[in-house]
Amino acid sequence: MTPVARLSWLAILTAVSLVPPAAAYSRDGARKAMVARIKASVHGASPDADNAELARVLAVMARVPREAFVPTAERKQAFADLSQQIGEGQTISAPSMVAVMTAAARLPLHANVLDVGTGSGYQAAVLGRLADHVASIEILPDIAAAARDRLAKLGFGNVEVRAGDGYAGWPERAPFDAIIVAAGSDKVPQPLLDQLKVGGRLVMPIGPTWASEQLLVLTKAAPGVTTRCSLGWTMFVPLTGRGARDDRVRGGMYDLSTPMCFAAPVIAPMFVPAKEPRHSKRGIALAPAYR
User: Fold this and answer.
1) How many angstroms separate the CA atoms of 140 and 46, rounded?
2) What percent of the chain has pLDDT above 90?
3) Model confidence at 246, in pLDDT bands (50, 70, 90)?
4) Which helix (H) or strand (E) holds 57?
5) Residue 152 forms beta bridges with which residues?
6) Beta pairing class for 176-181 and 112-116
7) Which of 31-40, 42-51, 190-199, 273-282 is predicted with the least confidence, judged by mean pLDDT?
8) pTM
9) Which run of H or of E encompasses 142?
10) Is the dihedral of CA 159, 164, 166, 171 positive or negative?
11) What is the percentage of the chain residues whose pLDDT exceeds 70?
C-alpha cells in the first residue's frame, strides 16, 4: 500500500470511529423530542409557564439519560410522557411532571435541595445538574439502595440518598432552598416547612383524598408564614410513614380557593389501566400517577 493510500484509509477509519452508534443518535434524538413535547404541552396549557426557568430545566433534561432510570423492559417507553413502574408499587414520574415541578422550585445558584421520594433517582438526577447539593430520601430501603448505586455510577456525585421517612426531612442537611415532594398527602409536613429557607419554595401534591389533590407551590415568606398557589389537578402515589393520609377518609372536595400559579393549570392527569393496582382495589391507576 502506498503512503497516500495508507493515509486515505487512516482518514476513513478515524472518521468512522468518530461517528456515534445509531443507538446513541436514537437516545439523544428521543430526549430532544421529549423536551420539545414538554415545552409545547406547557405552552399550550398556559403560555406564561413557558418561561426562562422551564427552559433552564429542559436544557438539563435533554442531557440526563432518563432511559437509565427505568427498568430495562420499559426502556422503549422511557421518553413517553407517562409515569412508569419501577417496582414495589412505585413509579418514576412522567417527564413533564419532573419538568414542571423542578421549574416551579425556581432553584437559585448554588442551591441546596431536598428531594422526598427518590424512586429510581431521575428527579434527583435532574436536580443534581441544577443544584450544588441534593439530599434525597426514599422510605423503601431496597429502592433507596438501587437509586444510590445508579446515581453514583452515572456520576451524580452531588446527590446524596438515604433510606428514611421523608416526613421528617433531613435536618442535618438543612436549611434548603427548595423541597420537592413526589408523594401526596392531606397536609404539608411541618418539619419540611421548618427546614425550608425563608424565600424558598416547597412543591408538593396536597389534597384531602388522592382524587382531589392539586400540585401546590408554597413559598416561605417568613418563619411560620407561607403563601401558596396551584399548578393544577394531579394524583400521586401516597406519602407513607408519618405523613400518610387516613384511609378512612373517602370524601373531600378539590380546593378551589387556592389561586393558580399561572394563568391556567399546567398539569392534569390521564387515566390508563394499571398493570399493578396501586391506589385502588379496582386496579385503576393514572398515567401519570406521578412519582
Assistant:
1) 36
2) 68
3) confident
4) helix 52-61
5) none
6) parallel
7) 273-282
8) 0.84
9) helix 141-153
10) negative
11) 81
- Phi, psi of 227, rounded to the nearest 5 degrees: -115, 160
**For the chain, percent helix, then strand, then coil, each to nearest 5?**
40, 25, 35
Cis, bond preceding 288 (omega within 30 deg of 0): yes
Q: Are 170 and 135 in contact (CB under 8 A)?
A: yes
**Cβ of 53: how many Cβ atoms within 10 Å?**
15
Q: Which residues touch 78 (CB under 8 Å, ≥6 apart)?
A: 30, 66, 67, 69, 70, 84
What is the average per-residue pLDDT within 187-215?
95
Q: What is the rounded CA–CA span in Å between residue 267 and residue 255?
A: 16
* Distance (Å, whole) CA 62 – CA 109: 20
C-alpha cell at position 283: 386496579
CA distances from 2 to 5, 114, 180 (A): 5, 63, 64
65-90 mean pLDDT: 91
Calpha distance 290→54 (Å, rounded): 18
Q: Is a pLDDT exceeding 90 seen at residue 291?
A: no
The mean pLDDT of 254-262, rounded to a whole number, is 89
**Mapping DSSP to helix (H, G, I), strand (E, B) and coil, where does residue 204 land?**
strand
Instruction: Show which residues are catalytic.
Output: 93
Cα–Cα dist 82/15, whole Å: 38
For residue 5, count other CB atoms closer than 10 A to its CB: 9
Average of per-residue pLDDT across 222-238? 94
3-class SS of residue 155: coil
To which residue does cell 430520601 refer? 137
